[in-house]
Recover the amino acids of this structure.
């Protein structure tokens, strides 16, 4: 394993860890700060909202000064945020720590995504193959963290748990700063006017606008859907675990397949995944069988797994080529806005009727994703 690969893997793992960390520590944080559920929810919502402009800023900085220094700074900021979160016992100070965590996460995520094509299969192969593989390490970080943090909180209490996890967050900085390395990304000229007029980039952003709320709404409401059909809570949890296992497995398979594929395959993969996901969601709306619902939910995880890496991979192949950091920041911002605006509609519809009926919204999102991918096939220029 090269140092670049180790650095990229550690950055992906730390970002996945941070995705899961705050949710897994939510109860311990509320108890330590004597906060209600609403206040903790506000803290996490503020963090999610802050990441949107911070991702744009991180992309701009990487294009201007290179990825290595931004990764080191992001890793240090993330570690400091986690460590101080364990020390600060007031709402205001915890809020400051979470905003710092948002800054660090944005930089670490941006650096990890942009390094993946160089670290794994190389820039002469499809970027989405490398991103598929890199996202597996993000998922591992998200899977391991809840169990690890739960054990640590019970063994050594919240403050020491935060310190241990902060040390893990330092790993990308240590590896990136290790002497004798020369890897980095070339600086890129940023013409915001040209970037904002790049129609291909806006189409990719539109894909993410539809995909992000599709994934987030299913991951949040899948267990509710199954319990509405009469599934036990334990059975619903196992089915959700199957969803994420299939999600992870399909990314591994896609990485191996796309490693040898032509550039045009990425967008056709998006079309197939979107169309098949819409069909599965239609079946979920109409079924009354718990066994069929469990199987179709796992199938949905398999279909959606490669979507995010494939749509991000398109950024590396569109013509005219945009500065990749700024372009990814813009696409991520559009997807995040989609999650903030569209994902809550599923919960609102479910409260008025049922979640089975509310699946019409994810169905519409899958259809919109498919249509947008078809438009890219007809209009975009890929290298």
């Amino acid at each position: 394993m090269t140092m670049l690969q180790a650095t990229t893997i550690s950055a992906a793992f730390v970002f996945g860890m941070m995705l899961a960390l705050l949710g897994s520590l939510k109860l311990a944080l509320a108890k330590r700060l004597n906060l209600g559920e609403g206040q903790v929810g506000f803290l996490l919502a503020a963090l999610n909202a802050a990441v949107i402009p911070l991702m744009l800023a991180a992309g701009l900085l990487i294009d201007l000064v290179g990825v290595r220094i931004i990764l080191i700074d992001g890793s240090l900021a993330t570690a400091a945020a986690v460590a101080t979160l364990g020390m600060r016992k007031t709402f205001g100070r915890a809020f400051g720590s979470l905003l710092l965590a948002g800054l660090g996460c944005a930089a670490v995520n941006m650096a990890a995504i942009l390094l993946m094509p160089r670290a794994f299969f190389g820039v002469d192969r499809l970027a989405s193959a490398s991103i598929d593989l890199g996202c597996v390490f993000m998922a591992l970080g998200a899977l391991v963290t809840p169990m690890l943090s739960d054990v640590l909180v019970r063994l050594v209490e919240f403050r020491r748990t935060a310190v241990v996890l902060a040390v893990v967050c330092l790993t990308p900085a240590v590896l990136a700063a290790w002497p004798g390395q020369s890897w980095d990304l070339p600086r890129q000229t940023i013409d915001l006017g040209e970037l904002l007029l790049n129609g291909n980039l806006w189409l990719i952003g539109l894909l993410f606008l539809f995909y992000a709320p599709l994934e987030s709404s299913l991951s949040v409401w899948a267990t509710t859907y199954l319990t509405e059909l009469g599934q036990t809570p334990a059975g619903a949890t196992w089915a959700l675990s199957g969803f994420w296992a299939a999600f992870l497995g399909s990314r591994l398979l896609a990485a191996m397949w796309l490693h040898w594929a032509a550039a045009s395959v990425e967008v056709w993969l998006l079309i197939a995944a979107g169309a098949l996901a819409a069909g599965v969601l239609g079946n979920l709306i109409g079924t009354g069988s718990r066994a069929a619902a469990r199987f179709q939910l796992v199938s949905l995880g398999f279909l959606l797994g490669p979507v995010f890496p494939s749509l991000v991979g398109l950024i590396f192949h569109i013509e005219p080529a945009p500065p990749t950091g700024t372009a990814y920041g813009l696409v991520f911002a559009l997807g995040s806005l989609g999650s903030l605006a569209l994902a809550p509609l599923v919960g609102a519809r479910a409260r008025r009727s049922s979640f089975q009926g509310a699946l019409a919204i994810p169905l519409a999102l899958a259809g919109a994703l498919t249509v947008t991918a078809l438009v890219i096939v007809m209009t975009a220029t890929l290298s």
Q: What stands out?
A: Residues 42 and 95 are 9 Å apart (CA to CA). The mean pLDDT is 81. The longest helix spans residues 127-169. The two ends are 29 Å apart (CA to CA).
